[in-house]
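User: Fold this; tokens only.

Assistant: Input:
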Amino acid sequence: MPDLKDGESTHVQGSARAPYILKNVGGVYSCTCPAWRNQSLPIERRTCKHLRAFRGDQAEQERLGGLATKSPAPTTPSTHTVPNLLLAERWENDTDLSGWWMSEKLDGVRAWWTGREFLSRQGNVYHAPDWFMAGLPDLALDGELWLQRKSFQQTVSIVRRHDRSDHWRQIAFVVFDAPVAEGPFEARQAYLEATFQEHRPLYARVLPQERCRGVGHLQTELARVEALGGEGLMLRQPASRYEAGRSATLLKVKTFHDAEARVVAHLPGRGRHAGRLGAVVAKLPSGLTFSVGTGFTDAERQHPPPIGTLITFRYQELTDRGVPRFPSFVRVRSEDDTPAVV
């Protein structure tokens, strides 16, 4: 496999229009893709699928394994520490998912059970009642505090309360992994099933997993889940380990929708985008306005779509207020084009 010498860089084509830049500075490898930049880990502990594809999985695993003394493997954390969570990358139709483990992507609140309490991704405590936590094992569990589909805001309002109210009876702790258990993913799932069979917690359960039989099966299951109001699917690589940070062994799959909106303002950029476009403010036919800050090339940021321009953007879903979530710029539309439906 190729590699980068100290101080070298190279370009790789990803899902964006502009290529991403891989770089090696003093043994610290970096990538300009969002998956690498948005990780909460120290920069020397980060990786992404572009680095793995370029250097090879084994080289990246050895590099990160050599840093184990600086950043230990996840263990049951103490109160108010930040959990070392496994984070998903987005599937871009570039990986054959046949044989991967498939489950529904829950639109809830990510939670780490320490063996004593629930922590958020930032290490904040969720004040669950004692009766809600009864029966949970004394080991670290990774899961989601979940109410039901299309109830994200209601879930947040319940789990962020400090009064340990009876509203928690609506919530379930849905577990997808046991980070400190031994063995690959399949062994950890068997361990979870056996542990929950023994302890029988009233308000917790293990998330069901199903083998993906191919693209057709994936599309059918995605359509079924979304028709029920679900957010999408999660795919887990067979025999994969639990590793802290964003990993290509865990992929999220969602249907993206295209729609049109009119540019009503420009917002200035910051950091590397200082002096050029940071985002456009766009207005939907309903009158709602929102910001679109991703999907632009450097040239488009230098010469942004003029105010009044109709643009096509891509988004995952609408919030309760009807505002697109995670909008991304696609292109400028001609007024003569047939508009997509919001």
